[in-house]
What we know:
Blueprint: H1 2-12, E1 14-17, E2 26-27, H2 53-66, E3 68-70, E4 73-75, E5 82-83, H3 85-101, E6 103-104, H4 114-120, E7 125-134, H5 139-147, H6 150-157, E8 163-169, E9 172-180
Parallel strand pairs: 5-8
Antiparallel strand pairs: 1-7, 2-6, 3-4, 7-9, 8-9
Amino acid sequence: MKNSILACAAGLLLLCACTKEPLEEWILPENGKASLPFEYKDTSFVMTQRVDSANMLRLVNAFRAKGCNCGEVYMPPAPPLTWNIRLEKASWLHSKEMKDSVYMSHTGRNGSTGGDRIRKMGFNWHRYAENIALGILTEKTVVEGWMGSKTHCMAMMDPMLKETGIARSGNYWTQELALSY
Length: 181
């Protein structure tokens, strides 16, 4: 039973990671309409459906501690990431926007990038990466799914990135990773 649930979850998983190639936007139909773009004006809001940050860090940092192959590229062990609430907030807002507007893309409905969203939350980044996923997933299966994708894996294994925040809204997941100035 457990294996069939995991197989079903893996079958529903969609992953996207920042790359230099053009990104494709997937618009998911919901009664033929999408809601208006989600806009936020300040950094004070209540996040719902929060992930277990200690567990997420443990899962990601276990991979970073061992090193791994990201596709055909070997990534040596990397220092552990620390949790950052500003990155979590940027992740949650993007997941919520994707869920509310029924789409999946690194580009926000207003044209924003992950870097724009991170800055809006008051994080002055020097380097960043963003992973997104869609599916009925657990914290463990989303991290394993990201590690099974070359571009997601390379983002999570990047030794230059020092902090992360991961959030979900419904079945939409976002991870922001960054290095501050």
